[in-house]
Amino acid sequence: MTDATVAEAPAAPSTRSAGRFLYISGVVLLCAWVLVPIYFLLVNTLSSPDTVNSFPKPLFPEFDFGSLAFFAQFAGMLTALKNSVLTAGMTMIMSILIGAPAGYALSRFDFRGKELFRLLILLTRAFPLPLLALPLAVMFIQTGLDDTTFGLALVHTTLAIPFAVLITFSLFSGIPLELEEAAWTLGCTRLTAFTKVVLPLILPGITASAIFAFVISWNEVFAAAVLTIENRTLTAFLLQNLDTSPLHLKFAGGFILVVPALIFIFAVRKYLFAMWGIANR
Amino acid sequence: MAEIQIKNVAKKFGAYQALHDINLTIADQEFMVLLGASGCGKTTLLRIICGLETATEGEVWIGGRRVDHLAPKDRGIAMVFQNYAVFPHLTVFENIGFGLRMQKLPDDEVRRRVERVASLMHIEMLLKRYSGELSGGQRQRVAVARALAMEPDVILMDEPLSNLDALLRMEMRAELKGVLAESKTTAVYVTHDQVEAMSMADRISVMHQGEIVQAASPIEVYRNPAAEFVASFIGNPPMNFLRAEAAGDGKWSVAGNVIDGPRYGKSPLQFAIRPEDMQPAGDGLEAKVKIVEPLGAHLLVTCEVNGTLFRAVLDSDMEVKRGDMLTLAPQTDRVRWFDPETTLAVA
């Protein structure tokens, strides 16, 4: 009896430390998976065009803005950047204007087919974009929406809405109905209770969901490439010039694309958990 | 100041009938407690008075004015919620002043009224804090202060003390009773806690399965329960019941004893007695002791009379142990009788 416990005692820490080793190496591996490519992107963007095109590649950035300057001067690049910002901005506004009321309705009202509706929202993401993009292109040409940032923003809005609805749904659900009811008993109408109590409480979350919509549009390339020709967004423009442009332009373009998305997602990370029903506070 | 009249109110949630034809008048400045187990419809009734729920049928009148078609804000009520519902994005001051600001009262009037109710509820030092920086008890005080600041005709409270710990609850109970009596407001208070109901109410409405079984003063509800449900719900431990067979001419045979009772056409009846209304004596009910629980002030003895569980509260000096036989004499003026078919009291 005593022997057994003595024998077991040293064994336990060693299995624990082995598990700990596995855990840490797993974390390191996963971080490297994400961080190493981003690091190389950063190194090559902040190096001069000559260094980027030579071999071996540098391991540390030389903080030379030659590549970025070349990127800025490349014909059409700044227009593409502007188009990207415009499209993403419109996507952000439209997806919140449509998504937030839907999220509120889902969280506060009971209606027939509510569960089905929630499922259908997600289902819009089940169709591959190429399947939708081609008929859309035809329709856009018929209505004159083709090759406009607004038309593209419409498509991006449909992509972003499911997330906007689900994020705001979970935000609204996180606000006890009693708070609204208390406001009603204290002299508020449904509308003033919303603006004075609910809105201030969910504003950070709404911002997060808006930024997420921005990033979705910002990163989207397929619909942008199919639906626009002259007014290309940055992603579509880079894709178009992928085989003809020099290496340092690709790096600089990639970097410009990745950075805002990264910063935004990092800023709103806690609200993205909210979308999956994990506590949002 | 206002009287509340509830006339033939019924509520259905889909096929489920939550309230059946409720009629109740609550007098001006009365403290009315709606008491019942969870799911009995007491909160639904409160929310119908408040206007957060609409009745399927019936009318609600407050202060001689029909209000069932009005929004909560137009009924002259204020409500205290179970989870307090203190707005987290506002300071305590702005929380208490919220309703006053909605009425567009001038700043100095808002300040005057907020400070008055804050001192009434002893939270003057918390006015600059946010709800996240308050304890449960303090939030409770803010919620009550916010309702009082409205100077409503009627104040509605939905289990306001149920989230507090036992000691704090006892303290708040007395304080709330004092503050409300002072404010001369009609109060409707929902609780499932009979001690809270007994200690605070002017009148208790005992609710069961969507109906008001009895509406009477606490002592009346305790001494003369209108139905078996009330008798077994109120009182801790609850009333004891024994089967009584007619023995002719107003006499009833209870566990081998013949006891004076009502003249009643039907047999059997239920004989009922509170645990504290019995004394050990030479003559009475034969009880076999099963469990003895010394509670300090008195002795709670669970025994068996004629195969039925039976509780008695005895003097703590009594020496009783498991397996003893007791002879318990019921105090005759405290005996109550119920018809087992209708479950209603028999006079």
UniProtKB/TrEMBL annotation, chain A:
Biological process per Gene Ontology, one example term: transmembrane transport
Main localisation: membrane
Record GO cellular component, one term: plasma membrane
InterPro entries according to UniProt: BP-dep_ABC_trans_perm, MetI-like, MetI-like_sf
Domain ABC transmembrane type-1: from-to ranges: 81-268
Keyword annotations from UniProtKB, A to Z: Cell membrane, Membrane, Sugar transport, Transmembrane, Transmembrane helix, Transport
Classification via PROSITE patterns: ABC_TM1
Location relative to the cell: Cell membrane
Membrane spanning stretches: 21-42, 87-107, 119-141, 153-177, 197-218, 247-268
Keyword Transmembrane tagged: yes
Membrane topology summary: Multi-pass membrane protein
Alphabetized Pfam families for the sequence: BPD_transp_1 (PF00528)
Record has Signal as a keyword: no
Family: Belongs to the binding-protein-dependent transport system permease family.
Protein name as annotated: Multiple sugar transport system permease protein
Organism: Marinovum algicola
